[in-house]
Amino acid sequence: MLIDWFTVIAQTLNFLILVWLMKRFLYKPILHAIDQREKLIATELADAYATKSDAQKERDEFQHKNEEFDRQRAALLNKAMDEAQVERQRLLDEARQAADDLSAERQENLRNDARNLNQAISRRTQQEVFAISRKVLMDLAGSSLEEHMLDHFISTLKAIKGEEKEKLTAAIKATQHPVVIRTTSNLSASLSASTEHAIKETFGMESQIRFETASELISGIELVTDGHKVAWSIADYLKSMESGIAELLDDKTKPGAGVGPAPEDGHGA
């Protein structure tokens, strides 16, 4: 078989030209395109990684902010609960204080009512007993009440003994002023004279005696000289009764007795 070298050379030359053309116009652009594609993919991958990192960072920041928000919310909630507790305690204290003040005011009103009732009963009792005592004594006596009163007073003066009588006698004799005898009403001339005579005889005095009226004595008589006074009155006999009434009112006005606390002053005016 004969070889056509011209054909072989031509085909070889054509193949080389084809290879050069493919390399020049086909292979290099493909490689370049592949390189560009790889660079693009690498860039996109880098961007995706950066985006992922940013997203992770933002996620971490969001989670941190969320945790911080939770802490702040818990702190605010605790603070609100503490403030609510403080306010609740304050309102309870105010309510308790208001209740105590109201109770104290009520107790004071009850004490005042009891005291006023005590005084009213004492005054009324005193007035009634004075009136009854005067009437009974007047009915039972053969002479006026004033005469019996003066007799009793003179007996009281004569009964004074010892140091007390010495001091009273010395005061009467030493005074430069008249000895004053006070009675509830004006005495008759005979009663005044007999009283003056009895007093001078009792104390051995020559001083003048002046008679005065004092309606506040209420069936009473008193001798007054410098720094000394001797008195007698039906009111003296009523003090025990007033004390008894005061004790009775005290018992009635103690807590639990239905009226209120006991008054501070059990005696009427």
Task: Give a brief outline of the structure.
The protein is of the alpha+beta class and 269 residues long. It contains five helices and four strands, in the order αααβαβββα.
Q: Which segments are poorly predicted (pLDDT under 50) over 5 or more consecutive residues?
A: 258-269
Largest sheet: 4 strands, mixed
- Rg value: 63 Å
Enumerate the strands of the largest sheet in spatial order, edge to edge or round the barrel: 2-1-3-4
> Count the strands?
4
The pLDDT mean sits at: 77
Distance between the termini: 171 Å
What's the total helix number? 5
Beta-strand portion reads 5-15%
Task: Quickly give the structural class.
Answer: alpha+beta
List SSEs in N-to-C order. Answer: HHHEHEEEH
Helical fraction equals over 70%
Principal-axes shape call: rod-shaped
Please explain how this structure is put together:
The chain has 269 residues and is an alpha+beta fold. 73% of the residues lie in helices and 8% in strands. The chain is built from five helices and four strands. The chain has helices at 5-140, 145-158, 162-174, 189-203, 234-252; strands at 179-183, 209-213, 220-225, 228-233. The chain has a four-stranded mixed sheet. Helix 2 (145-158) runs parallel beside helix 4. The longest helix is centred in the N-terminal third of the chain and has 136 residues, at 5-140. The relative contact order is 0.09.
SSE arrangement:
Elements: H1 5-140, H2 145-158, H3 162-174, E1 179-183, H4 189-203, E2 209-213, E3 220-225, E4 228-233, H5 234-252
Parallel strand pairs: 1-2
Antiparallel strand pairs: 1-3, 3-4
Helix pairs in contact: 1-5, 2-4
